[in-house]
Protein 1
Amino acid sequence: MNANISLDQAIRKIPDFPKPGILFYDITGILVNPPAFRECIDRMVEMYEHSHIDAIAAIESRGFVFAAPFAERMGIPLILIRKKGKLPGQTYGCKYNLEYGTAELEVHRADVKAGERILVMDDLIATGGTLNAARNVLEQGGATVSGFFGVVGLPFLNYQAVLGEIPVRTLIEYHGE
Ligand code: AMP
């Protein structure tokens, strides 16, 4: 079976959430489907196992779910990028625009090593604003973002323009809302 057919079936599409006009791609349907979840992690490892990545950074909270098994399989550190006010230590922070609303992300300063090549991951890439804010906080610590990954990509929202030259990879793309 085409891998994307099974992934597509596992992703619930919820119209008008969290506000009218947004089609919400809900990855919780992947998490309750062990073959689909395993397929995601297997394909992520296949994509990156020959790349030079020193660490994976993931966005709270759905990004964590995919990044944790990936980090364990790759044998690399997992850096948590969290919403403002959640991390207890000293942080770097960045405000950014969401597809719906605004927010602020933080990372522990101690978790970012200057010179490291970091892959940044979230469950879904829409406008790219969240991943770009993640790049900002990692660069404040002297790291380099070597790639961006989303389980789901919405390229019609032009995230590549926001994310510039850094390669973006996804497992499945949707072309409308
Ligand atoms: P963006 O910063 O615009 O790329 O938005 C990406 C973030 O918002 C991710 O953390 C997603 O989980 C969430 N998000 C944005 N749009 C959607 C959508 N249509 N369906 C599900 N999640 C979304």
Note: The pocket of adenosine monophosphate is lined by residues 22-25, 59, 62, 98-99, 122-130, 159 (CB under 6 Å).
Protein 2
Amino acid sequence: MTEKKMEFKTETKQLLDLMIHSLYSHKEIFLRELISNASDAIDKARFESLTDTSILEGDTGFKVKIAVDKEAGLLTISDNGIGMTKDEAITELGTIAHSGTKEFVTALQESKAKDNPELIGQFGVGFYSAFLVADKVTVLSRKAGADADTGIKWESTADGSFTIDDVKKEGKGTDIILHIRSDEDEYLDDWQVRSLVKKYSDFIEHQIVMDVEKEVDSTVAEGEKVKITEEETLNSQKAIWLKGKSDITGEEYNEFYKHISHDYADPFDVIHYNVEGTSEFTSLLFIPATRPVDILYKEYQMGLTLYVKRVKILDHCEKLLPQYLRFVKGVVDSSDLPLNVSREMLQNNSQVEVIKNSITKKVLGRIKNLKEKEYDRYVKFYTEYGRLLKEGVHFDFERKEAISELLLFASTKSEGDSLRSLDQYIEGMAEGQEDIYYITATNKEEAGNSPYLEVFKEKGYEVLIMLDEIDDMVMGSVEYKGKKLKSVIKGDLNVDSEDKEKTEEKKELEAKFKGLIGLIEGQLKESVGGVRLSSRLKDSPCCLVPDEGAMDPNMERMLKSMGQEVPEHKKTLEINPAHPLFEKMAAILETDAESELLKEYTELLYDQALLLEGSKPKDSTAFVNRVARIMAGNPVEPS
Ligand code: ADP
């Protein structure tokens, strides 16, 4: 016996289970998924046959065939495409969601996939959707161009394992045989199958056929009817992107989108256009309604489907889009590229560059238009994709300013959840204000309470609140309409530089606290890069400030928590000359330069600054003991 029993991978089992329990109200999509796989298999065979005609086995009539056997309870979807070898069947049909890792499963479980079937849809459950309606699935397959006795039979009841066996299979390609569950027998109905094909797969460019029984007039006995079986084509096979826009309904666009994206929700937006002239291509693009859950993982498969003169060449062709627009899905059909183009050939191909530029321009144009004309919808879009646009600001040098214009931020001046753009910020800038200020934080509340905002509150300057982890990397290098973006947490702010009198006052204060600053600097030289008077603090006594080019403390903490090495950078300790504490410290210094109390205060000062930036004191026990001693009225440790 050659039959072998094998276990599914753990993630596969979990996903299978999750899928069956979350997609129960979307069962009918199984047919779309299986037809889509069959159509892909035909695309592959046709593509390979361009260089090796032997795989055709003399048969060029590619088609997908659906057969219903009511009595046996079987629904079969067959194709004469590329087929699978034994190894391929084991790996391809044994792993769900190719980029599937444990993290994805966890993410899905956490996000309650049950209530959001579109989430699980994003993983391309594909083949496994067969188990939505079948309690057993049998796959017969044979690689195109191989011997008939290299066929395989794969079978599973979705109980965690599958069997694989060798069989003889005359025709190339694959039969997916569904043993339909008794309570799902509506899928054994001709009419139901026909309407599902029409609904979901009408635009598939290959023929989808089914044998149907028909009553026709008998040719032998006049006046009598006889039953015959006839092959009927169920789909109209029109490549939707080649039709005129006015000939396509919204519903058709939506179904096509679901076909290529495996999404269950309708797309947020459709962009359909063609270009003629030196470069000729048609492009049908979609923005999904929600950001794909795995879009920030490196396994995320970006890219559009590339067709050349209606022949599908490549899925996930990443060269047609910049990385930061990787949420865009769709197809590009080029008339200029050669049919035998390969992934490698697309590298540095000037035609591809032209298409990529055109698509980038078109998509950004649409987004801008949305912002200007349909702001509420834009905010929805931005909530999903703003994080990606920021990548664009960083990496797309040419369009840095154009993409910056699209950004929205929470701000100290925005009410509730409303957001502000850079243009709105500039419009509301105070007199004498030169730069655009922002603070990075993990949430809006934390930002609002930050001591780093004190001077801005006093002066009435707006501060943008940046909550994405990449903000620190991106925003520091942005200049928008001639105005620099500056972090309120970093560098010497000099917000008062315009004010002559203040500068005089500052000089006086510097002279007054010179001795104290020197002392603190000496004592903390291992921990801080320097000490200076603060122009950002109004109430709090002190804070730590990184240099302008240095890493933001949020980022630093995040990297450290991920176990990453962070280059050591000594921050500057800023002290608030208006705080009575420093009067007191300066007075102590005047009477006793060696004062133990002053040393205790200096240590505490540094720990307070650490706490204010969101870090822990250097030595928590020592910190607590110092505070407790002060509370007990006995600040200096007895020697
Ligand atoms: P996807 O189609 O997103 O890759 P599926 O779970 O639907 O995911 O299918 C997994 C893999 O199984 C496919 O990538 C393909 O390699 C193989 N496969 C599925 N159906 C067929 C078929 N009819 N012919 C050939 N290979 C198939």
Note: The chain has a mean pLDDT of 88.
